[in-house]
Write a structure and sequence with these properties.
Elements: H1 7-15, H2 20-31, H3 72-99, H4 105-131, H5 144-151, H6 156-184, H7 188-219, H8 223-233, H9 245-250, H10 255-270
Amino acid sequence: MTAEPELRQAARLLLTLRDPAEKAARTRELGAMQIYVDAARDLQEPEGTPGRPARPPLVSPREVPGRGVATVEARAALLHALAHIEFNAINLALDAVWRFAGMPHAYYLDWLKVASEEALHFTLLAEHLRVLGHAYGDFPAHDGLWQMAERTRLDPLARMALVPRTLEARGLDVSPAIRAKLAGAGDMAAAGILDIILRDEIGHVAIGNRWYRYLCEREGVDPVEHYAVLARRYEAPGQFGPFNLPARRAAGFTEAELRSLEQAAISGRDRPRSA
């Protein structure tokens, strides 16, 4: 980086880094800096986006190992899946910083904060994997989070709706049960990491909600009604309960949004499954 870096260009550079540990460390360094933001400049898509290591191999979700906790190996596979989510979340936040020009200054600082905290989560999980005799890359993973980023790369409103408020918000629902399993297996260190992640992810989803509503107001659309439009247009995955309603409320979901979420989940369960 130059002596006086610009935030969006710095985020774009970090996004291309392939080494996960370096990306996480440098993202946290960037998050601690006071740095100039050029919101008006349109930046070109860098090659090799996002930068990733050769491993883990990316497979379909059906090929990802089970996520039990009965053995050290199973627990490592579970924590590896979480580490992969957090590595993708670093990339998603960096992408949100550089990609979308013309947003308020606070938008870029918000997503830099998210990137820095996701980098901390990845680092904590990667370190604990080493305690269990494994490393990030040892198990197959899937690419669902980044696929949605690709679909929404031209539409910041869709990005805010369908990444932080949909895919990442799902983490609010499932984290307590995962945390309980890890604690039940006696891995209190891993359970403590889940506590940190859930605490921070509430804030990350709140940031998604804040900027989703800002963009809805800017474009003159209703947040609840337009979410359903975007979910259909971009083929967002269905959302199924149980939902962590206290965490979702803390993250800024309105009661109308939660009612719509629960109604969609019920109708989704009632639809016949395809073969």
